[in-house]
Design brief:
This protein is mostly helical. The protein has helices at about 1-15, 20-35, 50-65, 70-75, 80-95, 115-140, 145-170, 175-180, 205-225, 235-245, 250-265, 270-290, 295-305, 310-330, 360-390, 395-415, 425-440, 465-470, and strands at about 100-105, 110, 190, 195, 225-230, 230.
């Protein structure tokens, strides 16, 4: 019912909330925060119509009518369009190269991927990758729209504050109270003897990452001396950070503790240099893991100094990554297609012996190295682009906001190494970063308007005419 009612609700929001880019920001954030997890409509040839696909579809369709002018004028540049084209090629390749069944043990058969499934792959990537990226670049490229988007995230964080505190006290129950079922295993709820809030998101990690994102954007707005409905943003950002610290999610807390000083103390170009380093880590991570160059043992020992539970969790992730990478290297170009084919099985019994956590690993196994380059290239290219062009942005406050969005984009991209792609926010933020960088950096080099036929002005006397002086009129 909630997914169905979201369709007329989206149209109503566009009709009443002006300007229309605020409707886009509100719908994308609100859908991720409040629509139900796990449930979906299974329609043949279409991707599963769940909270993410419904939200993206029913923000894009109304936007075609209410924002048509700005969408037509949108300019992404050559590289994003090349990466989108590569994504389509990969989706076709995934279906073409995985039409063989996998026979495991005596009775286990993993079904082949039918050729027409390529259309499903393409539509899913269109909704979950292209739509948020394109809308972000097209509609949030100007100063006020960029601020509106960042403030929408902050307002979403404020809306979640009492809900997170409630679940810290009572355990994650809101999803069950509203929708009638728990959205995740109860084993994932407890951490260090306390509850990890999920509210209406798929996992406690997703909730914590959203709170970290909201807090970091709030600190960026505060440094740019912006306000939220007349209220200063430093206390709001601090409140979001405190609630995150209580949420028992170490990864997101480490991100925030490390990046807040960068936002508050470093100049914008230095902030984006840090973001570029994080983006480079994301793109190089598969190679570092493949050649055993990533410091896995050091990270496990560091986690053990905090708690044995966290050390065991990280060690388990790295062990599964090693197994999955060996499986992925058997089909490195287009991957194993998706569905159950990406997992690692015991060849004698047919038992699934793998656990996939990181979005990068799922992408790499499902669509190969080309799919990884396409998806994660769209996340990291805008960061590099912003670093190259930040000096061309003439307004210092604009530089501050762009740098904050760049750091936030890099943060959520790095989070995709250990964790899943819980929402469409990473590609939305990447698109916003690209659009704002391109638009706000053009203003420095834009020529001043001139009139070729206008005559040169004549010098005028500072004294008023005699008639005017006689009447007592001042010159």
């Amino acid at each position: 019912m909630a997914l169905l009612l979201w369709i007329p609700f989206s149209v109503a929001v566009f009709a009443f909330l002006k300007p229309s880019h605020r409707a886009v920001a509100f719908l994308l954030v609100a859908a991720a925060l409040f629509l139900p997890e796990l449930e979906f409509f299974d329609i043949k040839l279409l991707p599963n119509m769940n909270k993410k696909t419904v939200a993206c579809a029913w923000v894009f369709i109304p936007a075609l009518f209410w924002c048509s002018g700005r969408l037509k004028r949108a300019s992404l540049g050559a590289v994003p369009w090349m990466l989108f084209a590569l994504m389509v090629v990969v989706d076709i390749g995934r279906a073409v190269t995985n039409q063989d069944p996998l026979v495991l043990g005596h009775n286990t058969v993993i079904a082949p991927i039918l050729l027409h499934t390529a259309l499903t792959f393409i539509m899913e990537d269109f909704l979950l990758v292209f739509v948020p990226f394109f809308l972000g670049a097209a509609l949030f490229s100007e100063r006020e729209s960029l601020r509106d988007l960042m403030k929408t995230f902050v307002l979403g964080g404020l809306a979640y504050l009492p809900l997170v505190v409630l679940e810290l006290k009572l355990s994650p129950q809101l999803h069950a109270w509203v929708y009638g079922y728990h959205q995740h295993s109860w084993l994932q709820v407890l951490r260090d003897g306390a509850y990890r809030p999920m509210v209406f998101m798929h996992h406690g990690l997703a909730c914590a990452l959203f709170m970290a994102t909201s807090a970091l954007l709030a600190f960026g707005l505060a440094r740019a001396r912006d306000k939220l409905r007349g209220f200063g943003l430093y206390p709001i950002a601090a409140a979001l950070a405190i609630v995150l610290a209580l949420s028992h999610s170490l990864g997101s807390l480490v991100f925030l503790v490390a990046l807040v000083p960068v936002v508050l103390l470093l100049p914008p170009r230095m902030q984006l240099r840090v973001a570029v380093l994080l983006a480079a880590l994301v793109m190089l991570y598969p190679m570092l893991r493949a050649y055993d160059l990533f410091p896995t043992k050091m990270l496990v020992n560091w986690a053990r100094s905090i708690s044995e539970d966290r050390a065991g969790s990280i060690a388990f992730r790295f062990f599964n990554e090693d197994q999955a990478l060996k499986h992925a290297f058997e089909r490195p170009i287009f991957g194993w297609g998706g569905f159950d084919r990406i997992f690692v099985y015991n060849k004698q019994t047919g038992e699934d012996i793998s656990t996939f956590d990181g979005a990068w690993l799922i992408t790499y196994c499902a669509s190969g190295v080309l799919g990884f380059v396409a998806r994660f290239g769209l996340l990291t290219y805008p960061v590099w682009r912003a670093y190259r062009r930040i000096k061309r942005v003439p307004n210092r406050a604009d530089q501050t906001l762009i740098a904050c969005v760049g750091l936030t984009t890099a943060m959520v991209s790095v989070d995709l190494l250990p964790n899943g792609m819980f929402t469409y926010f990473p590609h939305l933020l990447a698109g916003v970063l690209l659009g704002a960088t391109r638009e706000l950096s053009r203003r420095e080099s834009a020529p001043l308007p001139t009139r070729a036929s206008a005559p040169a002005p004549r010098a005028r006397s500072m004294r008023p005419p005699v008639a005017a002086r006689a009447q007592g009129v001042r010159g």
